[in-house]
Write a structure and sequence with these properties.
The chain is of the alpha/beta class. It contains seven helices and six strands; from the N terminus they run ααβαβαββαβαβα. The N terminus and C terminus are likely disordered.
Length: 206
């Protein structure tokens, strides 16, 4: 594994150049990518409409919106005020300020915790805090990591370099939590394959 780049500051995500420019998502910029349709399609198989889902690091809330369209009581956590302000009007009331390691829990608990392309940002201390908080607010979780190949950062920015390998994360997942690759093909494969019982919620979990 390559030596990680310096940890990206949360201040990066307040910069419009991160969302559409030279520091992150290149023009035409951050959008409701096709990937979100695969994420929502798979997550929707894990429970039933009305179940409560928390998307941590939700950016502009596009996955939250897709899940709410499907009838789920979906909420988001996002540290960037810029991202929350640019979220669709229909989900802004469901997006809360906070980071994976520190967010308000009063709106919980939730049935499922989801975080996509976020945990690779975290230091080891932040990761421990984030996983402890995740388990506190939801009994089941699905965490996906972007840029599993550290030689190929997802968006040519520091924020999506994987600081630790996948097996490091697998060893630290709480019971009921699963970690996976955030690649589009990985999500599409999940839509086509049987549901792992570890993350089924809103029904039998035997």
């Amino acid at each position: 594994m390559q030596n990680p780049k310096p940890h990206a500051s949360l201040a990066l995500y307040e910069d419009p150049e991160y969302w559409n420019g030279s520091k992150g998502y290149r023009p035409p910029g951050f959008a409701d990518f096709l990937l979100n349709s695969y994420r929502a399609a798979y997550i929707a198989t894990l429970g039933s409409p009305g179940s409560r889902i928390l998307d941590v690091g939700c950016a502009f809330g596009y996955l939250v919106r897709r899940l709410r369209w499907r009838g789920y009581d979906a909420w988001g956590i996002e540290p960037s005020a810029y991202a929350r302000a640019h979220a669709p009007d229909e989900v802004q009331d469901y997006l809360l300020p906070g980071s994976a390691a520190d967010f308000p829990t009063a709106a919980g608990p939730w049935d499922l915790y989801v975080s996509c392309g976020v945990y690779e940002h975290l230091t080891e201390d932040e990761a421990q805090q984030a996983l402890a908080l995740a388990k506190q607010v939801a009994p089941r979780g699905l965490i996906s990591l972007a840029a599993l190949d550290p030689a190929k950062p997802q968006h040519d920015d520091d924020g999506h370099d994987l600081l630790r390998p996948l097996d490091w994360w697998q060893e630290r997942m709480p019971p009921g939590y699963t970690v996976m690759d955030d690649d589009t093909s990985a999500w599409l494969d999940l839509v086509k394959t049987p549901i792992p019982s570890a993350v089924v919620f809103g029904g039998s979990q035997d």
